[in-house]
C-alpha cells in the first residue's frame, strides 16, 4: 500500500457525515477519558488517606443530635423507676429502650427496630452491648408477655444498662 492510499483511507474518517460522527465520538472519548483520569486521581488520594490513617474515620457514625435531647425523657424514666408501682417500672424499661432506639436512629443506624440496629454494632463500637441486649430482652418480655410481673431489681438493672449505653454514646451526662 502506498502512502497516498493510506492517506485516502484515513481521510474518509474526517470528511462528510462520517467525519462529523467521528468528531463527536472523539469529543465524547476525550470527555470520558478526562472523567476517568479525575476519578483515578480521587480514588488514589482516598486510598492514600486510608492507608496512612489520615483523616481518621470511625465506622461508628458520629452523634448528630444534641445531648440535651435525652435528659428530659430520661428524667421521666428515673421518676418511674423510683416509683412503688410495678407498672411504672415496666414503663421505665420500655421508655429507656425507646430512648436508646431513638439515639441509634439519630446516629444513622438503619433498621426497623432496636434489635436490628443493635445487630449492626459490636463490642468495639459499644462496650456495653451485651448488657444492652440483656436489657432489650427484658423490654421484649414486658411487651410480649401481658402477665409478666417485673421485679424492681430487674427493672433497675435494665434501666442501668440502658443508662450506661447512653453515657457511652455521649447522649447522657450525669
Describe this structure as you would to a colleague.
The protein is an all-alpha fold and 174 residues long. It has two domains: 3-52; 67-168, no CATH class. Helix content is 67%, strand content 0%. It is built from seven helices and no strands. It has helices spanning 3-11, 16-52, 71-81, 86-106, 114-118, 129-144, 152-168. Helix 3 packs antiparallel against helix 4 and helix 4 crosses helix 6. The longest helix has 37 residues, at 16-52. The protein is rod-shaped.
Can you count the beta strands? 0
* Overall structural domain count: 2
**Distance between the terminal alpha carbons, to the nearest Å?**
89 Å
The string of secondary-structure elements, in order, is HHHHHHH
Oligomer: single chain
Question: How many helical elements?
Answer: 7
Strand content: under 5%
Global Rg = 31 Å
Secondary structure class reads mainly alpha
Shape category: rod-shaped
Poorly predicted ranges: none
Give average pLDDT, whole number: 84
Indicate the percent of residues in helices: 55-70%
The major β-sheet equals:
none
Describe the structure using short key phrases:
single chain, about 170 residues, mainly alpha, 7 helices, about 65% helix, rod-shaped
Task: Walk me through the topology.
Layout: H1 3-11, H2 16-52, H3 71-81, H4 86-106, H5 114-118, H6 129-144, H7 152-168
Summarize the structure in short.
The chain has helices at residues 3-11, 16-52, 71-81, 86-106, 114-118, 129-144, 152-168.
Amino acid at each position: 500500500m502506498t502512502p497516498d492510499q493510506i492517506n485516502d483511507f484515513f481521510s474518509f474518517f474526517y470528511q462528510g457525515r462520517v467525519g462529523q460522527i467521528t468528531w463527536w465520538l472523539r469529543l465524547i472519548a476525550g470527555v470520558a477519558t478526562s472523567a476517568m483520569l479525575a476519578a483515578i486521581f480521587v480514588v488514589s488520594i482516598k486510598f492514600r488517606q486510608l492507608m496512612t490513617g489520615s483523616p481518621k474515620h470511625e465506622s461508628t457514625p458520629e452523634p448528630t443530635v444534641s445531648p440535651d435531647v435525652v435528659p428530659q425523657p430520661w428524667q421521666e424514666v428515673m421518676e418511674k423507676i423510683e416509683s412503688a408501682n410495678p407498672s411504672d417500672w415496666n414503663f421505665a424499661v420500655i421508655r429507656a429502650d425507646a430512648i436508646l432506639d431513638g439515639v441509634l436512629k439519630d446516629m444513622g443506624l438503619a433498621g426497623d427496630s432496636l434489635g436490628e440496629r443493635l445487630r449492626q454494632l459490636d463490642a468495639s463500637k459499644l462496650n456495653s452491648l451485651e448488657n444492652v441486649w440483656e436489657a432489650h430482652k427484658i423490654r421484649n418480655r414486658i411487651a410480649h408477655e401481658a402477665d409478666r410481673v417485673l421485679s424492681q431489681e430487674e427493672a433497675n438493672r435494665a434501666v442501668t444498662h440502658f443508662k450506661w449505653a447512653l453515657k457511652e454514646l455521649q447522649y447522657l451526662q450525669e
